[in-house]
Amino acid sequence: EVQLLESGGGLVQPGGSLRLSCAASGFTFSSYAMNWVRQAPGKGLEWVSVISNSGDSTYYADSVKGRFTISRDNSKNTVALQMSSLSAEDTAVYFCASGNLGYYMDVWGKGTTVTVSS
Amino acid sequence: EIVMTQSPATLSVSPGERATLSCRASQSVSSYLAWYQQKPGQAPRLLIYGASTRATGIPARFSGSGSGTEFTLSISSLQSEDFAVYYCLQYKNWPLTFGGGTKVEIK
Fold first, then answer.
1. Number of CB atoms found within 10 A of residue A69's CB
2. What is the pLDDT of residues B38-85, one digit of tens each?
3. Contact A108/B42 with Cβ under 8 angstroms?
4. Could you tell me if B46 lies within 8 Å of chain A, comparing CB atoms?
């Protein structure tokens, strides 16, 4: 069964950092790009970042550029999102999702919740 | 950045009726358009990609059309499990951008 499982969410103070992780199973992880998409409480979906299947290409939304870093480990079938300088506007459920680079996402995890508050 | 605008924000439909959702792009995205369904507390589910191709396992009552800047998702006969929020996504240019969503509710 194809599965993505996010972890690492939690409560963090403004200005703090957090590292999210997503573990993949049931498919050839190294063949697919991996995305992070977030959803603030009661709001719509916002694409955050993507990393190519090999890890040599990354893209970010302007809202997180310079603060978030995406990475992957194809030997462990995991993708990570390192988040720093967090603010209340980063409070959201963060989903990881797979697809081909520059295309739609077809497999999604259940999400992990990040709350930025003092 | 390409801005995606969905309308209406909320659509009230009776079970068995047809629902038509719209998505407009601020510039041409060709056919690089996908539709997702999201239910409360769940991850989005891919319905349509390439503007009109149903994803694996998606019932035939879901259909997508359009190209360029105007797109439509139609649900031919709404079932109880179809009441949800629907999002369009353009993947023509970076950054990928979603529409604001259309909530399909029971009339």
1. 16
2. 999 999 999 999 999 999 999 999 999 999 999 999 999 999 999 999
3. no
4. yes
